[in-house]
Batch of 3 targets.
Target 1
Amino acid sequence: MSWRYGRPLPIRMEIESMAGSRVWPKRVLLVSCSVLISALLVEGLLRLRQGLKYGTASTTVYRFGVDPDSGLRVPVANHDTGRIRINSRGFRSPEIAVPKPSSLVRIAFLGGSTTFCAEVSGNEATWPHLVWRGLQDSYSEVTWDYVNAGVPGYTLTECHITLKRRIKPLSPDVIIIYEATNDLSRDTRELARQMGLGPAQADQPSWLGNLSLTWFLLEKNWQIMMRQREATSTPRLQFDPRLSRGFHERLLRLVRDAQVTAPVVVLATFSHKIRRDQTPAQQLRAANTSLFYMPYMSVPGLLDAFQEYNRVIRMVAEDTGAVLVSDEEAIPGDDRHFNDSVHFTDAGAELMAGRVLKGLTASKALTKLLSEEKQGQMLSAVGPRL
């Protein structure tokens, strides 16, 4: 064997192999560091955006505690993100005087996240605040205040407890009720589970989703995308109008107790982004969060379900004499007015407030209340007769 083709060649190969074995770990480390830095940069930018938009960099934009009197999950008192401000009583509204002054008209709003309005730009952009402002502008001779008792996730059951434990002691004069979607989700979920079409409860973020905002958003958007796809390809729950019986009973009890608490009770039909005149693609996109929380439903099933629950709201208003705010489709089903399937943007909240103001100011119940309030103020000014 020659010197050229003998020992030198294996030695060179060994040297190159050793050099390569030292390079690869460096490359892996470099790539790993690059990926980590990129992930941290994305996380930082998302949290900056979250902070600018919602006033907090957390994966949740509001904080909850437990109300010791009612046992309900309620917003933490005095919590302020800039965008969401909670008063000392755990309501997303200004501070109120307790006991209520006799010269003041107080409005209480009952509902879930669609009344709490986390998606709008601030407390002053929520539709309850805009209703209060509209009444104050229209009846400037009257002093008004309000309590936004809407809490994300509340059904009529929690609203009823709120009425008895948290609102009744505040002596409201007007109670406005707006809820359907959380009850619809609860009413259909157990049936879907029994039929093997869905989980017993809505999906919760993974441990990594609770830790990382980036992963939380990726996880949720992936689930929404998959559920939109499944809505047109897998077996769906067939909506049965009889499912609304429980909703009817709960709403009827709530309204009757509300009427014992306040002289004026208002029921508003529920607005949602999905519309029958949209194309199938538009409907599927509009149903994004409804399908996230009710993954066993179809788009036609959701349309039928919301129509049925609004029928029940109209029926209960007629049976009890409550003021009905109808015309739920006066709020266009588009991105300008809806943040997702059911939650309003600033523009949507403004139109929602307009709906409520139109129905309330045209009602005989409010006219009677204000007439009695004016008479009471006149008697107070004159003083007792001798």
Target 2
Amino acid sequence: MSETMTVAPVVKSVHVNCGVANAFAVFTRGIGSWWPLDQLALAPGEVKEVVWEEREGGEVYEIGRTGEKALWATVIAWAPPDGFTIAWRVNAEAEAATEVEVRFTPDAGGTRVDLEHRHWERLGERAAETMASYRSGWDFVLGRFVAHAR
């Protein structure tokens, strides 16, 4: 009998002082303007552009200064401006993709953004360690998003 490991998702919520449609557009189409590419990229400091293909089955990827493409994620669900779900490759060597769902909801003069990063168990032995780094990493990333989406 095999034992299935379950790792709790990382759940984060932030408030941005803009409408839902704008928050969604900044998070997706505008990700290259606020994501900390100098630190959190497959080629940190070498990223020229981040592309977000806005459809189910689309890809999210970085393009390096010399033109090489590095995949970040594949779009699983696409429902603008309410939310999206992506199969997120936490790094190029990851055994499997995790899943990130982001929802945008009108909230007191702005937008509440709820992020759930789940399915850590797909990473096997590295699940707990990788999840722990994302727990604080998402705080940093979402802080950048909040500052930019004003």
Target 3
Amino acid sequence: MSRRPLQFDLLKTSTTSRGRRGRLTTAHGVVETPVFMPVGTLGLVKSLDPRDLTAMGAGLTLANAFHLMLRPGDKAVAEFGGLHRFSGCEGAILTDSGGFQVFSLESLRKVTDDGVAFRSPIDGSLHDLTPERLVEVQENLGPDIAMVLDECPNATAEREYVLKSVDRTTAWAKRALAARTREDVAWFGIVQGALFEDIRRAHAEELGELPFDGFAVGGVSVGEAKEEIERIVQFTAPLLPPEKPRYLMGVGTPEDLVRGVSAGIDMFDCVMPTRNARNGCLFTSTGKVIIKHSAHRMSERPIDEACGCYTCQNFSRGFLRHLFQCKEISYTRLATLHNLWFYVNLMSEIRQSLEDDAFVPTRWLEPWSQGEKGL
């Protein structure tokens, strides 16, 4: 199979860290890296539409193959012409395998070397998810980038279990590569190993020999302490092939993104900015704002004076608090617009600092350690 569905160009490497400035070229546009991918689990980010994402400069979004397989069904999406046409998204799309979702269904799934048998959390129906079936699902969806099936052990897993799990993930990765039929979908392998550095190293070396288009650091942010997450990311990222994009799955806070970039990560996703927005937690250049606090009731200030998003340019904290207290749906939209703009703009500033070879993580970390957290 002659394949080059994804091109990655490494444009510059920081001299003060392992940070990388790169560029992904996909069939649906050019994506500058490091990049944060907003999460649109079911095809769109909750409360937003593709125009919102385009306007804020989010050229790569994440959808979840596990959820779309269950509803409306991957074959139904294929009949619509693929996920781009189905959702109206013109930018690039990455589909997560749903491995984390499957393995979080402890009472509803059974793992074997063949794959995972699980009952749908929607209607209880039984499904067999094998590496080959997941390739079929994602080829039906037709994303620009797809993730292989992996086993995601929790943070407290014993060493012997992690070793067996990593062997299984490697075997599944090889089966997924052999099952591909489309040349226009890029595939990423996922490095596991829990908190064991020697297992992480061995798995990164083994997967690095396989013809993946990129690689991800998986199995972090599943119960570990923040210090352990940073240790594993800092250790694992440099082990991945330097000529391929590196993706840190499911992480995280603005601080996590800054530290991830310093480790050499190119791609990030997390539900935090959207979920926190819905729950009343807003990110700013000086820390978090908890919009329900009474201090904001009569405030005419925007969420963040330094922010150029539509919400901050047009609405006060006092009005947003009113909408939140009334459970008004427009609050969700305005808050989500702001939080994602903050994340996308943060990555834009980081990219510029890498271009200028002036990337200093403390520039972004200090305001958050000293600012109005929780106000």
